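User: Before I run my own analysis I want an independent prediction to cross-check against. Here's the chain; please return only the structure tokens and, at the end, one sentence I can use as a sanity check.
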Amino acid sequence: MKKTAIILMIITLLSKILGLVRETTLAYFFPTNSAVANAFLVSQVLPVTIISLFAAGIYTSFIPIYNRIVKKEGREQGDIFTSNINNIMVIIILVFIVILEIFAPFVVKIFAPGFTGYTRILTIRFMRLMFISMIVSIMACVFRGYLNANNHFLVQNLQGFIMNFFIILALVISNTYNNDLIVGIGLLLGNIIQYVPFAIMTKRKKFKYHKVLDFFDENVKMIFLLSIPIVFGVAVNQINVMVDKSIASTVAKNGIPILNYASRLIEFVSGIVIANISIIVYPELSKSYIDNDMNKMKEGVVKAMSMICFFVFPATIGLMILSAPVTKLLFFRGAFTLNDVSLTSTCMFFYAIGLIGLATRDIISKTFYAMNDTKTPTVNSTIMVIINIIGNIVLSRIFGIVGLAMATTIASLIGAYTITRRLRRKIGSFKNLKNLFVDIFKMLLSSIIMGILTFACFKISSIKFSGNISLILSIVVAGVTYFGLLFILKVGELVEIIEFYKNRKKSKRI
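Assistant: Structure tokens:
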């Protein structure tokens, strides 16, 4: 698991870097309060929301059902089941596209009530283009589940490269020719062409497509029954995002872009570490449950949490301490002002605190899904959203845009705590956790010491060097300090990684 996770993290890191290039390109050419910046961000909300709803429901319920079918009936029946689900989802999404194309103006009015004039018109145009791309996005969701169930995890990480390339190209061309619509066309092409790797890899996996359309198949009924609570939970979370953006658009004119830039850097860490570990562990948890091996399932959860802490602790401390210089390095150019830097870095600081809550909740939720319990994570999500919305309303009046980030973090930490308690009640206590807690303590201690030394390094180096050079030096110091301390303290995760690569070198020599 560790080897695959590290490979996925490297690929995702490169993809996320290109994503940051996309964000810096947008910030460079278009001010945070411009029509293009706002239309670019808001136009993606509903299409991404709908796809996220279906993706979460279909992908999460697909894997355990597919594994059961293959184990009992063989791969061919698994291919028939996959084809049927794909065909059904394409038909459903086509109906959505027709309806949404007609009512696009009303949708924009709901999601961005503060938009008027040209900003509103451009958002409608971008959104209508994005609706078209939903058909290939939903197909990618189905085959993502198929590939993951067959222990292939790399293709989905290539999506970001393709999509971001076309978007960056569109931003540059749009600015060169002063044609804002080109940005929307770039969004459309990027989202459509990113499906190509899925088609190639499913063919290599010898997937056989079947012309089947059976809405009443028992497995289809099961997948939709399991999906309902998941979709509801994701819907609640997406409504939460929309509420954030809606309140942000009224709190400040540049509120939506500021929150977007701040959350992007948090998503950078989340996408690299949390998502990849979760993707790998979920099929294994599902297989353990099907085999009725609860001890193996518990062991998988413990290993996943250990890996999460290994990466998330230093990332959290680092983002909190270096939020301002990181924001300045990435975005402070062109139309992005010093005031934007201040607001974005402060929001990032509070978002970072909630990273461990997001990570914990994601792994524990996957454990419930593997046991075909989709209700518990949904209830947990609903509670989190209620807390977040209340926090948004209260804290935004006190702290402005920053209050929205604070509310999100508070909700994620509470959600992680409550769902973890619920898991212990469901499957019992975990045995032999002493080594895990000792390693987690060592990781946290190493991260704190790393943070102190990194902060000191940045302050001292800033006297002689520019802010960007000081930041780079500080990041190097952070990395050397953290891994050096882990090595000295003999943290299990690092020891296993070192031993893995030592054994790999020995095998190559032999």
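Sanity check: The chain has two domains: 2-431, 438-510.
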